Amino acid sequence: MDSVEQEAGEKRVMEHLVKPLERRGLVKPASLTKAQYDEMIRDLCARLAYMSAESLDALEEHAAAQPGGKARDRMPIANDMLDWAGKIQAPVDDGSPLMRKVFAHEIGRRALDGGFAPELLAAIKKHRLWPGTYIVSQAQMSAADSVRRLEDIERRLAAGRDVSDAEAAWRARRREVIARCDGWSRGQGGAE
Question: Do the beta carbons of residue 123 and residue 103 sit within 8 Å?
Fold first, then answer.
């Protein structure tokens, strides 16, 4: 997303999410100062700029039904809205700072070398945490069948044998995710 698209997206978030919630009477969370609330809204607009107007309208409706505070008149906190937003319209997979850092780290290189980068990426997306040894080992274990499947497809292709359309499509998707993670490991935007 370039700067023009980002700016348009942030305006869309204000028009379809923030202002409608405020018009409904939802006010800043009591635990935040005015400056903190303004910063939360700026950050929320930046993070949700990828969403379509229709998805933002759905998020606004959902958020309005989940107000915060004892009187249920407070704007939901950004973390809740980001969680709901991800379920309504998943963010584009252009690599969050966390994803980029993980794959630029030794953990990411090990995942790329071991063939379990797609599973590690899925775990990072799910948990939004730096992967510890447990998450890494779970990603590695869940990748075992996929690693064997990819190796089998690659062997058959190298031998000049046919693979099904479904296998070719699965291989292409997996290789695309691996290429994106590899790009992040080298400080690039990932494969385009």
Answer: no
